[in-house]
């Protein structure tokens, strides 16, 4: 691991770290901080039912924030061996979101999260392949 700044790593490597940085920041800010601080507002914005019980949404927000920190750190320290793991995790998350919608357990708004996960995973995957 080198101590060069992320910007230099990106210029010297490829855009995979950019995709992981973007996804990490998204996870920390939108579902992470968003659900921890304003779960009702965020859930209502996406049309996700909640029944007025917000402690679970806050815990999910905490977990999303932690995942975001890991994604951001993987990019920051250019842990290339973990890039494929992040891609697989994001595709898996998208599949679970789609399955929840198909089964009628979640409203159509959940597909937006699936699209974000698939787009980010694809970005990282293609960037990694271009760097070879």
Automatic annotation (TrEMBL):
Task: Report the transmembrane regions from the record.
Answer: 20-38, 50-70, 82-102, 108-126
The entry's keywords: Membrane, Transmembrane, Transmembrane helix
Q: What is this protein called?
A: EamA-like transporter family protein
Specify the superkingdom.
Bacteria
């Amino acid at each position: 691991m080198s101590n060069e700044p992320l910007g230099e790593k990106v210029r010297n490597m490829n855009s995979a770290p950019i995709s992981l940085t973007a996804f990490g920041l998204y996870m920390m800010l939108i579902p992470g901080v968003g659900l921890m601080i304003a779960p009702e507002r965020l859930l209502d914005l996406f049309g996700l039912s909640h029944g007025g019980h917000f402690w679970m949404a806050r815990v999910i927000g905490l977990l999303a924030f932690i995942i975001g920190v890991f994604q951001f750190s993987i990019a920051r320290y250019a842990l290339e061996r973990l890039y494929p793991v992040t891609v697989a995790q994001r595709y898996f998350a998208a599949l679970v979101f789609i399955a929840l919608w198909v089964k009628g357990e979640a409203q159509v708004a959940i597909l937006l999260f699936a699209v974000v996960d698939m787009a980010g995973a694809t970005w990282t995957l293609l960037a990694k392949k271009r760097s070879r």
